[in-house]
Structures are given as structure tokens and as C-alpha cells.
């Protein structure tokens, strides 16, 4: 029996318990009544406090009934944290038991016995121990295989529901319009159609399994400079063409929840944007589910956007604008939100509408009848061999071969040959943001050694991803003399004035200096934009001694060592890191004083040291070069750093990895570079010196095996890029489907074309396209045409090809993208095999936004282009819209 069928059978056998069974006399308890009648009855019985708690969601760390929390009025839902077991195999069961315990608590200890919606993160796997960790979303997008994505999502949904999770805060369907954004790894790329189809496949699988999907972040989450949650100022035309389609597709696929973004949109916080939440989402689109904020975003109007005087007023305006559920990072943060509900600032009709949306979904999920799961069944549904095999398939399909010169790949070492594998990403098996620990992660090095034999593989770590030869001074190295004893940490004094004038308003001991006061000030008495600080005490050199001391800060500072000025950046000019040469002997103790001023913006400061010296990275490269020189070939595994609130100003490989690649390539040994990361990488300093480049993305827990399979040719690489790779950062933002320029694309000193275009990817075989037919060649508005072509595998081995269809009208009433994806299909062909591929071009594909920003099929010729990427067009024809 399929595992999904097993899950449904097991869940159907779990009996109701507690007050959920005992309160059968209330109409809302009667499953035979119409859903809306049950919602009305329950809503009519609720107090204002009970209504509020149905609109408040947060993580929970303690056990049910913990005295630190009071859930006597109920709750919308909980994210269960604090599950810890000595064995990973027991984690899923422990999680399910904890969820059941909470459901029993709400059944037995609340007046109305309303069940909660247990929720969790699941961008590419449930983010919990014992769950399968699949490839990152951007890797899934690179497969261009919606059926595979649906299978992956279905597997995640089975694992989630078996534990009692009934809502996931996924997927991320923001269009990645700038590859500097740190969250590109969580997305499905830069194209609205690709994102829409991948997102719909993901959402549909979850909703069919009875788990609420939460596409996010409505409506955009990346702004100028590729920065996370930066303000969005876009036209209605751009919203309609780029940002709205994935959300419309997700809703059509059944999504019952939507998460708002942190940023402002046209001057209004996304959590309070009535046009987006009410006029568009609930009005024009008819969305009947509930809208949740991102974590702690509701109060962002107060502390970040500065559009509200208080959290209570921000709450009132958010609910009136169309937000339904307040998501906070802890139970304890509920007080100002509850005050807004009880103050009368929110009309009762608004509150009732929001609560009804939540209750409706709880009834639809069957939580009132079947709130519990069977912990005994969890082990057979989480981290199964079938799911791990699926994770491996997905990783294989997403790997993109970007370069392959001189037959570098696939690797075919002769008997007795040795292979150098270099870089910490070869052993770390990183899986990207929002990842769980997985069941059994396989590193690239382990997979290669398992395949080739450990005796033939030589490993060297190289200099790693860290670009800085410094680190935050740890707490154990800082001390303070007082009262005849040594106290760990530094004496901290905080002043109202940035000049440090007057008496400190607060004194305390800080264990170390490593602060980023984004939302708050160091102490409540201070403004977060106007204060000063001083830290004094001693620093003790570690066994290696100290070579350099320094500061990373975005405001003015002065650093003193043994009473002498070491760094003076008191005049505020710019942020960054400054290091000063010192020579502090191992074990020596020195007085230190650091002064800091904040006169605008949020405080950010770190006290740094360097204990290794500036030449340590070169020594690591030299060691790697020696390993490579003694080998027949080298695989350098290089990675990037990114993630939520970790946007990149530079797209090159961080640290000294580019120097490493150049040095290894200079040995003359054939070099393959495997890239680990979730976004575009610039390569101009080294790409022409290496034979092959493979983008592995974050390939999930089975990713090491997938990479080895591609390197040695067991699997034909057929992933295609879901984002454009620029030559340099100065080209950004750079997307393939931009509107025509008024002049040209190029720069004075650089081409305007990318390093690798959207849709690009190589194979170990070759494909030919022929026999384009468009039938009929002329259609009326509202009609459809079939596009046929034949693709033949002309190479020497079997492989996959992703056939892509692009459109552009010859003439339109408003500027249209220079080229726009209208369809794609991944096919498998044996050597010499041909296949006819057919696409339908109807209203969804041929419509454009006219001069009045209306979606229409405008009359005229439309160019139909079929190829292997957005720049590799193999066939071209036309269809006439009459």
C-alpha cells in the first residue's frame, strides 16, 4: 500500500478524545451540519479573549500547561520546539507525541475545546529531526520538472501530517528579481511562469494531503540592491506581470493561507496594505483562507517603518486592512496585540471575519473530529528509504553543468589514478537555509570515496569560505577585575549622548562585544538611534597569541590597548572592518577600552581579533596545491554564504576560494569546480582556467551521492538555470525578461549580456531540434494553437533535455518583455531517439498587458521561439492573433 494511503488509514483510525468527544451536544460539534453553520455557532459562543487567541500564533517551548504560558482561552496554532531525543530515529515519534499532548491540553483545559493548527517550516523538507531533507527550492526549480516537485512536496506533506503538523509556512514564491538577495535559495527563480508552476505543484500536493500551504511573502520581499525586505515601489503593471501570477497560481492550486512580507509596498507596510490584502487578495481573487503576518512583522510598522505610534495601533490598522492572524516569535509578546483587540479599536465585524476564516479551515481539516495522530505510525512515514531515494532523484535532476571544456567531465580516472578533492564544502554537506538535520547526510567526499575507494582520493580543506582572518573575541578571553576577583566579560557603560558625556544611564557586564541592535537599543532608557557606549576591562591572548585587534562597526568608535590609541574612527563615515597590527604573547593580559557612538540608524559593533596571521590562508592554499599536483585530476568544491537577512554585495566566491582555484588550475591538472550555493556566482577571475563547472546548489541530504553520480557520468546532467548569472555585479539587476531598453544593453567597459543565461545548462550528450509546426497558424482572440517540434538525441548516450518555448509580440500597445517564457517540458531520450513535443498556446500564454494595464490577447503576429535556453533558440515561427 502506498505510504500516503497508509497515512490516511492510520489517521482515520485515531479516535477523538477529551472534550472534543464529550461536547457533542453543541451544534459546532456536529460534523453533519454544513460547515458555515458550525462556524457561526462556534463564533457566537466565543468571548473577545477567545477570539483574539484564535488569531495569535507563536512557537511553544515548554510542555502543555507550562505556568509560563496561559492558553486557557485557546490558540490559533503552535510551532512545537524543544523536542530532543538521543536518537534521530525517535525524533519523529517524540514530535508527534508532543503535538498530541498539546491537542489534548486544548481539548481538556479550554472552555470550547477548539483544536490548534500545529505549524512548521517546510521549504524543502520538514525542518525537524528525523525528516527527509530534500534539495533547496532553487535546486528543485533547476529541475524544470513540476511532476517531480509535486512528488517531493507530497513526501514532505506525508512526513508533516504524520507528526500532526497541519500547516507549513511554505513555499516561498517571491520572484527572485535580484540574485544578490540572500533568500534566492528559497525561491523558484526569476521567471513568473516557472515560479508559478513550481509553486502550484508544491501547494497542490500539500493541500491534497490535508496540510495547509502558506505561500509567501505577499507580495514581494526583495528591494533595491537585492536587499531583504527593502521597500518596494512598483507599478500596478509590474505587480500584475511579475509578482502577482505566482500567488494567483498558488491560490488556484488550493492554498488556504498566505503570509505577508516584512517590507513596505508603495509606502505602506505589507501587513497593513489594504489594497493588497483586501482589494486584491480577498476581493478580486476571492481568497477565503486566512492571511498571516511574517514573524513579528505586525509591530514592524512601529519599530521599522515608523508609520505607527504603538504596537496596538499597528495591530488595529493591520486587521482592518485585511490581516487575519498575528504571528509572533513567542507567547510573551501577545500583550499589546491583545490590548488592541480589547480596546475597541478593531470593529467586531473585522474580528469576526478573521476568526471565521480560521475556524473554517480548522473544520475543513477535520481537527474537531480527528485532532490526534498515531505516534506508532510516524517511524514508517518519516525519513523512509523511498523518500531518501526521491531526495536523490531530485538532487540529480537539479544539478546544472555550466562548463565542460576538453572533455573534463565525466571523470574517467585510469586504474591506480588519484583524485584530489579540495574544499570544506566537500565534507560539510550543507543543505541551505530552513533545513532540518536530515536523516543521513552524504557529503561529496564520502560519496566519491564510496565510489572510487578511499585510497584513490586525496583531500585538502583549502582556505575555506571565510574571507576574514579574524573572529569575534570570545567571552573567555575578556575579563574584569573587581572586588578582589576576576569577573568574565567587560564593564559596559551606556550613555544618552553619543559623545559619552554625562553619567551613564546603565552599567552592566557584557560577556563580549558582538551586538546588532536592529529593533531595540542596548537598554530601554536609550533611543536606538542616539546613544554612546564604553567597554573596559582586560583581554588575555590565547595560546597562539594575538596578531591583530580590530573592530567591525557602522558608527564611530575608538579602541585603546594598554591605555594607548589603537584605532580611531570616531568621525562617522562608513561601516566596515578595521584591524591594527599587534604582537601579544600567548597568555599575556592587557587592558582594553572600546568607545562607541550611535548618532543615526541602528547600532552594530563587534570586537575582533586575529590569532593566525594574514598568511594562514596562503598556507592552506599551498597545502591544497601540493595535493592537487600529485593527483591525476582535481575537484574543487567551493561555496557561498547567504540566507535570510544575509544578502550579498559581492557575487564572487567568498574568502580566498578564487585564489585557491587559480592556484590549483596553475598546476596543469584538469580541474572541475563544484559550486555549492543557492544563487548566482560571478566567475570572471577563474572560469577560463578550469575545465568544468558544476552547480550543485544545496542538493539535500543525498546530494553528495548525486554530485558524484554526475561527476563520474552515471547520471547525465540536465538541470537548467532558474536565474541569470551575471558577468559582474555592476550588471544587476539582470533578468532575461526585461522590457526593451531605449538605447542599448552594453556598458562602456562590459557587455550587457550575462555569463550564463536563464534556462541554460549543458549535457553529456547533444540534442537537435527540427520540424516546427504551429497549427493553426492564425487564431481568433480567445483561441488556441498547438506548437509541435521534434527533438532528437544526437549524442552518444541517453540524457534529458528541457525544451523551452518563448514568445514576443511583433507589435504591442505597451512595451512587452524582449522574450518571455510560455512553456517548458523536460523529456528523456535514449541515444538516437526522437520525440515530438507539443505545447498549447492559448489565452494564458498569449495574453499581454495592454496600454491600460488590462490582460488581453492583442491582434498581431507573435514570434514563437523554441530552444534550449532563453538565448539558445533553435526554432522560430509565428502565430497570428486575429
Task: Report on the architecture of this protein.
This protein has 882 residues and is an alpha/beta fold. 26% of the residues lie in helices and 23% in strands. It contains 22 helices and 39 strands. Strands 15, 16, 17, 18, 20, 22, 23 and 25 form an eight-stranded antiparallel sheet that branches. It has a six-stranded mixed sheet with strand order 11-29-28-27-12-13, sandwiched between helices. Strands 14, 19, 21, 24 and 26 form a five-stranded antiparallel sheet that branches. α20 links the parallel β27 and β28. α1 runs parallel beside α7 and α7 packs antiparallel against α16. About 1% of the residues have low confidence.
The proportion of strand residues reads 15-25%
Distance, first to last CA:
52 Å
The oligomeric status of these chains comes to single chain
Extended strand count: 39
Ranges where pLDDT stays below 50 over 5 or more residues in a row are 17-23
Overall pLDDT score: 94
| Biggest sheet architecture | 8 strands, antiparallel
Please state the structural category: alpha/beta
Amount of helix: 25-40%
Total helical segments: 22
Provide the fold topology.
Layout: H1 3-13, H2 19-22, H3 35-45, H4 48-53, E1 56-60, E2 77-80, H5 88-109, E3 119-120, H6 137-142, H7 146-162, E4 167-168, H8 192-208, E5 212-213, H9 236-252, E6 257-259, E7 264-265, E8 268-269, H10 274-284, E9 290-292, H11 300-303, H12 311-321, E10 326-327, H13 335-342, H14 348-364, H15 375-378, H16 385-398, E11 400-404, E12 419-422, H17 425-428, H18 444-452, E13 457-460, E14 471-472, E15 478-482, E16 485-488, E17 490-495, E18 506-510, E19 514-516, E20 531-540, E21 546-553, E22 557-561, E23 564-569, E24 576-584, E25 589-598, E26 604-610, H19 616-629, E27 633-639, H20 657-665, E28 671-676, E29 692-695, H21 703-711, E30 767-775, E31 778-779, E32 785-793, E33 799-809, E34 820-829, E35 834-841, H22 843-846, E36 848-849, E37 855-856, E38 860-867, E39 873-881
Parallel strand pairs: 1-2, 1-10, 3-4, 4-5, 6-9, 12-13, 12-27, 27-28, 28-29, 31-39
Antiparallel strand pairs: 7-8, 11-29, 14-26, 15-16, 15-20, 17-18, 17-20, 19-26, 20-25, 21-24, 21-26, 22-23, 22-25, 30-32, 32-35, 33-34, 33-38, 36-37, 38-39
Amino acid at each position: 500500500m502506498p505510504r500516503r494511503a497508509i497515512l490516511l488509514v492510520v489517521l482515520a483510525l485515531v479516535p477523538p478524545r477529551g472534550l472534543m468527544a464529550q461536547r457533542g451536544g453543541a451544534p459546532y460539534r456536529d460534523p453533519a451540519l454544513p460547515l458555515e453553520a458550525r462556524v457561526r455557532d462556534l463564533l457566537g459562543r466565543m468571548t473577545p479573549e477567545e477570539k483574539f487567541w484564535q488569531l495569535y500564533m507563536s512557537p511553544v517551548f515548554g510542555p502543555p500547561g507550562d505556568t509560563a504560558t496561559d492558553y486557557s482561552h485557546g490558540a490559533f496554532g503552535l510551532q512545537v520546539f524543544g523536542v530532543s531525543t538521543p536518537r534521530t530515529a525517535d525524533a519523529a515519534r517524540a514530535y508527534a507525541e508532543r503535538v498530541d499532548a498539546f491537542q489534548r491540553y486544548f481539548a481538556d483545559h479550554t472552555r470550547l475545546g477548539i483544536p490548534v493548527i500545529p505549524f512548521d517550516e517546510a521549504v524543502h523538507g520538514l525542518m525537524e529531526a528525523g525528516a527527509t531533507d530534500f534539495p533547496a527550492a532553487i535546486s528543485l526549480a533547476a529541475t524544470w520538472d513540476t511532476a517531480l516537485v509535486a512528488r517531493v512536496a507530497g513526501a514532505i506533506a506525508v512526513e508533516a501530517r504524520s507528526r500532526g503538523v497541519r500547516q507549513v509556512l511554505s513555499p516561498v514564491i517571491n520572484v527572485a528579481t535580484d540574485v544578490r538577495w540572500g533568500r534566492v535559495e528559497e525561491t523558484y527563480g526569476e521567471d513568473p511562469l516557472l515560479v508559478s508552476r513550481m509553486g502550484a505543484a508544491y501547494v497542490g500536493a500539500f493541500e491534497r494531503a490535508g496540510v495547509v500551504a502558506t505561500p509567501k511573502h505577499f507580495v514581494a520581499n526583495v528591494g533595491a540592491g537585492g536587499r531583504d525586505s527593502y521597500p518596494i515601489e512598483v507599478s500596478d503593471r509590474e505587480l500584475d506581470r511579475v509578482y502577482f501570477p505566482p500567488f494567483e497560481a498558488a491560490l488556484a492550486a488550493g492554498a488556504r493561507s498566505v503570509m505577508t512580507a516584512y517590507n513596505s509596498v508603495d509606502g505602506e507596510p505589507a501587513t497593513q496594505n489594504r489594497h493588497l490584502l483586501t482589494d486584491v487578495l480577498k476581493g478580486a481573487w476571492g481568497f477565503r483562507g486566512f492571511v498571516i503576518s511574517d514573524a513579528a512583522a505586525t509591530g514592524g510598522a512601529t519599530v521599522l517603518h515608523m508609520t505607527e505610534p504603538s504596537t496596538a495601533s499597528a495591530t488595529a490598522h493591520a486587521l482592518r486592512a485585511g490581516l487575519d492572524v498575528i504571528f509572533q516569535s513567542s507567547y510573551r509578546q501577545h500583550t499589546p496585540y491583545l490590548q488592541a483587540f480589547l480596546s475597541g479599536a478593531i470593529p467586531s465585524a473585522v474580528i469576526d471575519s478573521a476568526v471565521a476564516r480560521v475556524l473554517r479551515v480548522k473544520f475543513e481539516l477535520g481537527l474537531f473530529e480527528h485532532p490526534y495522530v498515531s505516534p506508532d505510525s510516524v517511524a514508517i512515514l518519516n525519513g523512509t528509504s523511498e523518500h531518501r531515494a526521491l531526495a536523490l532523484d531530485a538532487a540529480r535532476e537539479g544539478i546544472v553543468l555550466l562548463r565542460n571544456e576538453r572533455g573534463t567531465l565525466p571523470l574517467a580516472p585510469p586504474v591506480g589514478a588519484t583524485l584530489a578533492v579540495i574544499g570544506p564544502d566537500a565534507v560539510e554537506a550543507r543543505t541551505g537555509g530552513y533545513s532540518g538535520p536530515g536523516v543521513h547526510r552524504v557529503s561529496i567526499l564520502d560519496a566519491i570515496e564510496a565510489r572510487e575507494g578511499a585510497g584513490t582520493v586525496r583531500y585538502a580543506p583549502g582556505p575555506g569560505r571565510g574571507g576574514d582572518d579574524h573572529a569575534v573575541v570570545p567571552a573567555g578571553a575578556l575579563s574584569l577585575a573587581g572586588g578582589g576577583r576576576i569577573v568574565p566579560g567587560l564593564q559596559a557603560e551606556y550613555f544618552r549622548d553619543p559623545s559619552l558625556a554625562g553619567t551613564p544611564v546603565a552599567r552592566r557586564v557584557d560577556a563580549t562585544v558582538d551586538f546588532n541592535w536592529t529593533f531595540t537599543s542596548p537598554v530601554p532608557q536609550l533611543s536606538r538611534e542616539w546613544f554612546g557606549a564604553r567597554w573596559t576591562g582586560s583581554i588575555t591572548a590565547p595560546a597562539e597569541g594575538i596578531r591583530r585587534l580590530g573592530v567591525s562597526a557602522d558608527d564611530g568608535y575608538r579602541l585603546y590597548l594598554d591605555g594607548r590609541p589603537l584605532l580611531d574612527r570616531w568621525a562617522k563615515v562608513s561601516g566596515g572592518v578595521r584591524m591594527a597590527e599587534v604582537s601579544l604573547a600567548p597568555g599575556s593580559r592587557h587592558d582594553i577600552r572600546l568607545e562607541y557612538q550611535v548618532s543615526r540608524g541602528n547600532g552594530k559593533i563587534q570586537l575582533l581579533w586575529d590569532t593566525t596571521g594574514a598568511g594562514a590562508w596562503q598556507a592552506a592554499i599551498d597545502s591544497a596545491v601540493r595535493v592537487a599536483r600529485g593527483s591525476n585530476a582535481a575537484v574543487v568544491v567551493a561555496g557561498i554564504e547567504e540566507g535570510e537577512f544575509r544578502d550579498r554585495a559581492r557575487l564572487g566566491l567568498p574568502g580566498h576560494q578564487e585564489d585557491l582555484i587559480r592556484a590549483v588550475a596553475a598546476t596543469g591538472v584538469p580541474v572541475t569546480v563544484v559550486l555549492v550555493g543557492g544563487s548566482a556566482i560571478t566567475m570572471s577571475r577563474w572560469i577560463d582556467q578550469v575545465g568544468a563547472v558544476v552547480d550543485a546548489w544545496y542538493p539535500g541530504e543525498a546530494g553528495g551521492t548525486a554530485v558524484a553520480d554526475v561527476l563520474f557520468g552515471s547520471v547525465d546532467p540536465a538541470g537548467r538555470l532558474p536565474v541569470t548569472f551575471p558577468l559582474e555585479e555592476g550588471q544587476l539587476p539582470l533578468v532575461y525578461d526585461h522590457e526593451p531598453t531605449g538605447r542599448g544593453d552594453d556598458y562602456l567597459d562590459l557587455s550587457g549580456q550575462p555569463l550564463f543565461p536563464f534556462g541554460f545548462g549543458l549535457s553529456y550528450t547533444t540534442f537537435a531540434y527540427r520540424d516546427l509546426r504551429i497549427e493553426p497558424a492564425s487564431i481568433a482572440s480567445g483561441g488556441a494553437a498547438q506548437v509541435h517540434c521534434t527533438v532528437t538525441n544526437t549524442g552518444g548516450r541517453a540524457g534529458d533535455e528541457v525544451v523551452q518555448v518563448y514568445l514576443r509580440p511583433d507589435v504591442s500597445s505597451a512595451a512587452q518583455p524582449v522574450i518571455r517564457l510560455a512553456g517548458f517540458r523536460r523529456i528523456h531520450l535514449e541515444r538516437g531517439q526522437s520525440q515530438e513535443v507539443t505545447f498549447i498556446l492559448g489565452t494564458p500564454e498569449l495574453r499581454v498587458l495592454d496600454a491600460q494595464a488590462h490582460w488581453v490577447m492583442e491582434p498581431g503576429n507573435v514570434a514563437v521561439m523554441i530552444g534550449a535556453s532563453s538565448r539558445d533558440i533553435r526554432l522560430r515561427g509565428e502565430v497570428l492573433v486575429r
